[in-house]
Amino acid sequence: MQFISTQEELRSLYKQPGENAVRKELKRLDGHCRSFIGKSPFVLIGSTDGAGNADVTPKGDRPGFVEVLDDTTIAIPDRPGNNRLDTLENLLRDPAIGLLFLIPGMNETLRINGEARITADPTLRERLAHDGKPPISIIVVRVKAAYMHCAKAFMRSELWRPESWPDRAMLPTLGQILKDQLVLDQCAGETDRWLDEAYQKSMW
Predict the structure, then answer these.
(1) Domain Pyridoxamine 5'-phosphate oxidase N-terminal, which positions (predicted)?
(2) Smallest Cα–Cα separation from 36: which of 98, 94, 108, 115?
(3) Residue 62 maps to which CATH number?
(4) Around Cβ 146, how many Cβ atoms within 10 Å?
(5) Domain tally for the chain?
(6) What is the CA radius of gyration of the chain?
(7) Which of 195, 156, 154 is nearest to 173 (CA)?
């Protein structure tokens, strides 16, 4: 198998991007970007450790959980998780960050690229609290580029069409997966029950 190694080789396979595809990139958040972020309950965060190791992690909460602080700054609260801190530690090493905001049922997405810093500022933590529970920390992103991404990926995948979804009963539970991958002694059902309890107790 041969691999492409130059920009010239790569570009020879594709058409040049249209004028609007280039011009749509914004340096600041406009009203449409603000509205999209305010309605989005889910964002994917891309980061790198600066040594060639990349990571993508999901963040989800009530719609509008990511707050727009101004036209070039947004704040993403970090709620309780598995404490691996892959993304946060990456951002300490390399502040470059890529975001993809989703709204359920909408095929278009909002992409934001920028630079991130992490804060535990008490005022901002309190401002982003959920039912009195503040986030552990907050990712503050300085926006460098923002633009709407077209619908083709979601249309091809039929992601939002329930009739295209697999039968959940035919897929293994996380407990079953962890039992196999970690060679756990306890049965899969016990792990699933433990996970359900943990979800209920430590969602926020």
Answers:
(1) 30-150
(2) 108
(3) 2.30.110.10
(4) 27
(5) 2
(6) 20
(7) 195
Residue 43 domain flag: yes
Looking at the fold, whether 76 and 149 belong to one and the same domain comes out as yes
Name the residue range of residue 89's domain.
19-157
Each of the 204 residues of the chain gets a pLDDT tens digit; together they read: 999 999 999 999 999 999 998 999 999 999 999 999 999 999 999 999 999 999 999 999 999 999 999 999 999 999 999 999 999 999 999 999 999 999 999 999 999 999 999 999 999 999 999 999 999 999 999 999 999 999 999 999 999 999 999 999 999 999 999 999 999 999 999 999 999 998 988 888
Contact predicate 45/76, CB 8 Å: yes
**pTM (two decimals):** 0.94
Nearest Cα to Cα of residue 116 among 135, 93, 150: 93
Are 175 and 144 in the same domain?
no
Shared-domain flag, residues 114 and 180? no
d(Cα 29, Cα 69) in Å, to the nearest integer?
Answer: 11
SS3 category, 42: strand
Residue 109 covered by a domain: yes
